[in-house]
Amino acid sequence: PSPILAGQTAVITGGASGIGKSIVQRFLEAGANCLAADLNEEALAALKQEFAAYDNKLDVVKVDVSDRDAVEGMVDRAVQTFGQMDVIVNNAGIMDNLLPIAEMDDDVWERLMRVNLNSVMYGTRKAVRYFLDRGQGGVIINTASLSGLCAGRGGCAYTASKFAVVGLTKNVAFMYADTGIRCNAICPGNTQTNIGVGMRQPSERGMAKATTGYAGATRSGTPEEISAAALFLASDQAGFINGETLTIDGGWSAY
Ligand code: NAD
Question: Can you tell me which atom of ligand 1 is nearest the CA of 65?
Answer without folding.
Answer: 19
